[in-house]
């Protein structure tokens, strides 16, 4: 079932050098390590495919996206089996994520059929305008060309081989070359088999999709530097994302890098909500913080609340809820050890007090809970950096002025949450202008894990939440990353793209 090969423009190929997968349980497999020649073959194939795929009808691309979804569903048991082995995520999570992935593909199919995303504009000619006539001017969004996508470790399906980046790029008309994440190469291969089958079924150019496996940075570097690549979609760490962003900017022809990077997703607890519902919020927070072993970019790592009895009660309730959470398997050994390093960094920071002691080793994660004053948090910027895993920090502020100071000091965030009752409206109104400048999505009385795939979703934000504040990697607006407006002046209808008809 698994070949360990790359899929390069319709050919399953592999070289002599291999790496071995490191599943949380079940059998390990050998996978080919991609080379610069593989990257060149895949990107050249993608460019060739663009001459037909980039000019194909929206109906045919919608049919292709739906066919990929069907082919993934028809391999559901194998994908769940290998996915759970490789990632250690439970079966229910893999099944849910598969539904999200196929739902996303189908959503983009229906989105492009509607056509609104083309943002068509027309300024009619004004031949009699004085002092100068106006020409006829039309505009439509066109696909940019071959796109590179990096599979993400924490979403083996929804942000990987046929995930949101791939679905939105294909919907736009852009061929895709995926650099598989080494944490789940078997899952990636099974999904690539599904895409390959859909390509054959729909008669699409085989260069429209390639998957290159690798466990090192060389393939990713070669991919973003390849002159025919026009844009990059990435979800992962700030360190890797920044390195790839810099490579994209340093190219002779720079290209956009759509990186979705780290976030601590702060929650602000306003006084009446805290007094009236503190224990309930604490329980909900513990659930959100520990879901999927905290390996979500929307994990709410920081709670900001006024110092006092209500926050003490909140801390006690959160501690009780977190103590009941068992150790969970993390996605990779590296992520587990990075989690413990992050924990050590937080624990040794001046003014930080541990509220809950737990121990975890190997590939396991248990929750940690800390408390720090607003003053110490403001003095130690390291506390505002993402710790990828189930670690929470309660920041106790002396007054609302300090809560606002913390909001103003935040780096860019994917999300920010206000817990409020009606009586907290004035404070919430004062926080909103600040949070709007800091986050891509602002919530009230909820938890940010669980990102709806829909038209109005924004999963992005100011740097370092993302490298491009005008974009989202979830929801139908994600297609805009892979489009470029083109204006047509005094153009005969026969020369216009079909989408302008
Ligand atoms: P990562 O280190 O960012 O790696 C993501 C991908 O980028 C991998 O395919 C990796 O290749 C590649 N890569 C890394 N450094 C590169 C470089 N300098 N040049 C070119 N390619 C490079 O993420 P990860 O492996 O998934 O997890 C590591 C840490 O990332 C986690 O502990 C967590 O802190 C963070 N993370 C954050 C999010 C989020 O959404 N905020 C999601 C996932 C991970 P190879 O692995 O093949 O070397």
UniProtKB/TrEMBL annotation:
Coiled-coil regions listed in the entry: none
Domain of life of the source: Bacteria
Domain Aldehyde dehydrogenase: start-end pairs: 30-452
Pfam families: Aldedh
SUPFAM superfamilies: ALDH-like (SSF53720)
GO MF, any single term: oxidoreductase activity, acting on the aldehyde or oxo group of donors, NAD or NADP as acceptor
Keywords linked to the UniProt accession: Oxidoreductase
InterPro entries: Ald_DH/histidinol_DH, Ald_DH_N, Aldehyde_DH_dom, Aldehyde_DH_Superfamily, ALDH_KGSADH
PANTHER family: ALDEHYDE DEHYDROGENASE-RELATED, SUCCINATE-SEMIALDEHYDE DEHYDROGENASE, MITOCHONDRIAL
Protein name: Aldehyde dehydrogenase (NADP(+))
Naturally occurring in which organism (per UniProt): Roseibium aggregatum
């Amino acid at each position: 079932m698994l070949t360990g090969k790359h899929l390069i423009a319709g050919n399953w190929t592999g070289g002599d050098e291999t790496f071995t997968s490191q599943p949380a349980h079940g059998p390990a497999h050998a996978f080919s390590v991609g080379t610069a020649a593989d990257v060149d073959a895949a990107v050249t194939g993608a460019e060739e495919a663009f001459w037909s795929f980039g000019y194909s009808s929206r109906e045919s691309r919608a049919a292709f996206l739906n066919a990929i979804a069907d082919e993934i569903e028809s391999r559901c048991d194998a994908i769940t089996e290998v996915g759970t082995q490789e990632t250690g995520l439970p079966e229910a999570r893999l099944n849910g994520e598969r539904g999200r992935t196929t739902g996303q593909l189908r959503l983009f199919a229906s989105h492009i059929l509607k056509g609104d995303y083309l943002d068509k504009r027309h300024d009619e000619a004004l031949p009699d305008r004085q002092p100068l006539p106006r020409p006829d001017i039309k505009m439509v969004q066109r696909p940019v060309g071959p796109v590179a996508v990096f599979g993400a470790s924490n979403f083996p399906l929804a942000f990987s081989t046929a995930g949101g980046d791939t679905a939105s790029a294909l919907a736009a008309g852009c061929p895709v070359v995926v650099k598989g994440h080494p944490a789940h190469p078997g899952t990636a291969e099974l999904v690539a088999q599904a895409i390959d089958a859909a390509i054959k079924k729909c008669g699409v150019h085989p260069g429209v999709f390639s998957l290159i496996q690798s466990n090192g940075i060389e393939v990713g570097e070669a991919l973003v530097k390849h002159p025919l690549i026009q844009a990059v979609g990435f979800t992962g760490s700030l360190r890797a994302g920044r390195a790839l962003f810099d490579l994209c900017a340093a190219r002779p022809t720079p290209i956009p890098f759509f990186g979705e990077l780290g976030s601590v997703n702060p929650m602000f607890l306003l006084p009446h909500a805290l007094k009236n519902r503190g224990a309930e919020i604490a329980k909900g927070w513990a659930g959100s913080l520990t879901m999927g072993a905290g390996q979500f970019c929307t994990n709410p790592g920081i709670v900001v609340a006024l110092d006092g009895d209500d926050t003490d009660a909140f801390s006690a309730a959160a501690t009780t809820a977190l103590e009941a959470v068992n150790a969970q398997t993390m996605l990779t050994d590296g992520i587990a050890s990075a989690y413990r390093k992050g924990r050590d960094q937080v624990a040794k920071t001046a003014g930080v007090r541990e509220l809950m002691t737990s121990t975890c080793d190997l590939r396991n994660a248990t929750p940690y809970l800390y408390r720090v004053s607003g003053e110490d948090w403001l003095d130690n910027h390291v506390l505002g950096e993402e710790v990828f895993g189930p670690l929470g920090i309660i920041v106790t502020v002396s007054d609302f002025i300090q809560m606002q100071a913390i909001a103003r000091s935040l780096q860019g965030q994917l999300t920010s949450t206000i817990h409020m009752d009606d009586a907290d409206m004035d404070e919430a109104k004062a926080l909103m202008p600040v949070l709007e400048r800091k986050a891509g999505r602002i919530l009230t009385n909820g938890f940010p894990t669980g990102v709806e795939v829909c038209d109005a979703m924004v999963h992005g934000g100011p740097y370092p939440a993302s490298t491009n504040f005008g974009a989202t990697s979830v929801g139908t607006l994600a297609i805009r990353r892979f489009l470029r407006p083109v204006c047509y002046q005094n153009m005969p209808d026969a020369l216009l793209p079909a989408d302008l008809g």
